[in-house]
């Protein structure tokens, strides 16, 4: 079952607010609702909350924060909103973009001040499309640390997180108001839990191959690198309820996943002056446009493979990421004293690799864009020892989802909010528009944390029968 009328005999238990999914969005929603004094429960399918949040680098973009000010970065929400709109080719909902750009700073500071998350700004390289250094991360620069710290914050306030609880359907009344959820346990037993408001924080449909094939055909054969439990439940339920689904073809890909190790290699290796070649040793694109759109570009190369080429200076920057350090430990990063040796070790034609680097040096020297339009002027030349890693493209997470308004209320196809139903993070339509190239670095956790917090506040207000929170 997915959508059903409430059980005749009533519910086995009742809680005012249910949050489905214990990722960044679910925890932010829960913490925010709890602050407003509402009793709630998070339902999570896994035994330990992880989600795609744990797979991420845990970086949240935010503008005008005190963390930026402390290190002399001049930034503001308007500039951030402009970057988001430009990257999304002006196809994202402008009101939603303005809202998340405005609320990102206060949300990061809220997590830092109220829940002791020790953020700092990644200040040693630029993310594509961001006009300021505004990615905020935790010391390990890993999503595992982010989700663990969020879970610890929820534990500290005794917010119940019910694990091994798959929400398998919704109970909805004749007025389309959600009255409860069905929970399926690992032993297939089912419970009906009543609620007054529901926040969907169960991410998107990357883990549902049929939905990926339907909505994102270019990624139907790609490796899905996100959490497998994200199977599109929010959009399936919402669709049945008449919710509006937006930007279903949008997604975050990544063109730099170590192969066959399956480890994310930070795009710093490219943005700091590195580049990609294919198995023929040839460049094939302007890598600086963004890592998301690069997934399909890499997958279009022979063998669906590319090599990131960089050097020790760049590796030292990438080493701040736990993923990169792990890739080094596992031997995914290849090193050689000369480019010719590197080519041999990669099994690519040495003359072609030398030609690729020579073209880049030419662009660096002249200051003109290279034949793909990428500029290298002002960047340091690569120096021996050279480094490389074999990579492929992957689907990280979907960016389409339930259309929401400024209070994270799910809206229907006529633009009206569905009663007491909220969505955040990957369950909601994001701010990337309908294409992979619309994804600005950090858009995933941006809407998970910011919309999560807003959804929690608004759901708490709805439970208390107050008008939804306006932000
Ligand atoms: C490798 C990788 C790197 C990334 N790096 C970044 C980054 O640095 N910055 C950034 O902004 N974004 C990044 N992203 C994207 C980011 O991880 C996601 O956008 C974000 O984590 C989404 O948060 P969420 O809370 O919506 O979903 P999740 O963290 O996936 O949480 C959803 C939870 O819902 C649970 N669930 C699903 N269905 C049900 C159900 N029916 N019943 C009960 N529980 C259910 C799942 O088990 C899961 O725990 C990355 C993604 C990947 C895969």
Short recap of the structure:
The chain is of the alpha/beta class and 471 residues long.
What does this structure look like?
The protein is α/β, with parallel strands linked by helices. 34% of the residues lie in helices and 21% in strands. It is built from 15 helices and 21 strands. Strands 1, 2, 3, 7, 8, 9, 10, 20 and 21 form a nine-stranded mixed beta sheet that branches. A hairpin with a 5-residue loop joins strand 9 (178-184) and strand 10. The longest helix has 22 residues, at 94-115. The protein is elongated, with a radius of gyration of 23 Å. The two termini are 36 Å apart. The mean pLDDT is 96. Bound molecules: flavin-adenine dinucleotide.
Total count of helical runs of at least 4 residues: 15
* Percent of sequence in beta strands: 15-25%
| Largest sheet properties | 9 strands, mixed
Question: What is the straight-line distance between the termini?
Answer: 36 Å
Mean pLDDT: 96
> Which consecutive residue ranges, at least 5 long each, have pLDDT under 50?
none
Structural class: alpha/beta
Overall outline: elongated
């Amino acid at each position: 079952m997915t959508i059903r009328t409430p059980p005749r005999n009533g519910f086995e238990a009742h809680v005012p607010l249910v949050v489905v999914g214990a990722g960044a969005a679910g925890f932010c929603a829960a913490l925010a609702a709890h602050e407003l004094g509402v009793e709630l429960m998070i339902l999570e399918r896994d035994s330990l909350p992880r989600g795609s949040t744990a797979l991420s680098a845990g970086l949240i973009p935010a503008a005008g924060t005190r963390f930026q000010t402390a290190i002399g970065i001049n930034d503001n929400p308007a500039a951030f909103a402009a970057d988001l709109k430009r990257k999304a080719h002006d196809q994202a909902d402008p009101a939603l973009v303005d809202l998340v750009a405005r609320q990102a700073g206060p949300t990061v500071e809220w997590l830092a001040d109220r829940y002791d998350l020790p953020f700092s700004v990644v200040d040693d390289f630029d993310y594509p499309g961001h006009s300021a250094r505004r990615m905020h991360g935790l010391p390990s620069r890993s999503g595992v640390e982010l989700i663990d710290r969020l879970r610890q914050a929820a534990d500290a306030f005794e917010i119940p997180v019910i694990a091994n609880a798959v929400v398998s359907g919704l109970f909805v009344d004749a007025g389309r108001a959600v009255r409860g959820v069905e929970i399926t346990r690992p032993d297939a037993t089912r419970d009906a839990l009543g609620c007054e408001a529901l926040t969907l924080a169960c991410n998107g449909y990357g883990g549902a191959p049929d939905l990926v094939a339907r909505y994102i055909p270019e990624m139907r054969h790609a490796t899905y690198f996100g959490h497998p439990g994200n199977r599109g439940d929010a959009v399936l339920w919402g669709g049945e309820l008449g919710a509006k689904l937006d930007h279903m073809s949008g997604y975050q890909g990544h063109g730099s996943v170590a192969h066959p190790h399956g480890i994310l290699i930070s795009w710093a290796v490219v943005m700091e002056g590195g580049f990609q070649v294919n198995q023929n040793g040839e460049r094939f694109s302007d890598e600086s446009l963004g890592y998301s759109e690069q997934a399909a570009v890499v997958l279009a190369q022979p063998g669906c493979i590319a090599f990131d080429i960089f050097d020790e200076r760049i590796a030292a920057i990438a080493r701040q990421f736990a993923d990169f350090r792990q890739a080094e430990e596992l031997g995914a990063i290849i090193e050689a004293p000369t480019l010719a040796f590197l080519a041999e070790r990669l099994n690519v034609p040495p003359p072609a690799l030398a030609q690729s680097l020579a073209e880049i040096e030419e662009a660096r020297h002249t200051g003109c864009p290279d034949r793909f339009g990428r500029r290298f002027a002002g960047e340091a030349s690569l120096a021996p020892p050279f480094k490389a890693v074999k990579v492929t493209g992957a689907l990280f997470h979907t960016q389409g989802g339930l259309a929401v308004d400024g209070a994270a209320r799910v809206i229907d196809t006529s633009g009206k909010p569905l009663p007491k139903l909220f969505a955040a993070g990957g369950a909601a339509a994001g701010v990337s528009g309908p294409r992979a190239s619309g994804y600005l670095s950090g858009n995933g956790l941006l809407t998970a944390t910011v919309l999560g917090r807003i959804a929690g506040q608004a759901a708490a207000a709805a439970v208390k029968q107050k008008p939804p929170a306006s932000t």
